[in-house]
Design goal:
51% of the residues lie in helices and 14% in strands. It is an alpha/beta fold.
Length: 174
């Protein structure tokens, strides 16, 4: 509800959102936060309320907003993804994934502009758009491996190390 007035075209976690992503061949930008999170509010004010950022997001992604307290199931899965991919976690949690719900990028707070060793959302979005357009095969392969490894982890079965293909994603995007 806190993001209802944002210029970002937010969807709830729904079949409709993923169907739109498939139909329009767009990656999904998943943002998970909660109402009392300081950095969630900072990212919302810096980026999600900004017209330029919103336009880039609306042109590039199907964007989904989730409250971790309302959907702890989704938060749990994608927080595990973030922790496995980045060795860290927290909120706001940002996952960029295929329309098939397979992640290929994970981060926590992303500033509007690149600073303090963190890529800014204004620099990240064009990079995501570029690799989605020009290196989609590699993105899909990487996302498949990530999803498989996360499934194995969540099921409690041993699997290969998750860093297998992350070097492609992070070298290409950051």
């Amino acid at each position: 509800m806190q993001h209802a007035e944002n210029p970002v075209d937010w969807y709830p976690w729904s079949d409709e959102a993923f169907e739109r992503a498939r139909e329009e061949d767009r990656p999904v930008f998943l943002s998970i936060g909660y109402s009392t999170c300081h950095w969630c509010h900072v990212m919302a004010h810096e980026s999600f309320e900004d017209e330029l950022v919103a336009q880039l997001m609306n042109d590039t992604f199907v964007s989904i907003k989730v409250d971790c307290e309302e959907r702890p199931d989704i938060d749990g899965i994608y927080m595990t993804v973030c922790q496995m991919m980045t060795s860290g976690g927290g909120w706001p949690l940002t996952i960029i994934m295929t329309p098939e719900k397979k992640p290929f990028f994970a981060a926590t707070y992303i500033p509007k502009e690149t600073r303090f060793g963190r890529i800014g959302i204004l620099d990240l979005i064009p990079k995501i758009q570029d690799v989605w357009t020009n290196q989609k095969t590699e993105i899909i392969e990487s996302a498949e491996k990530i999803a498989s490894t996360v499934r194995q982890h969540l099921l409690g079965t041993p699997g290969e190390e998750l860093h297998v293909r992350f070097e492609f994603c992070y070298r290409s995007l950051v």
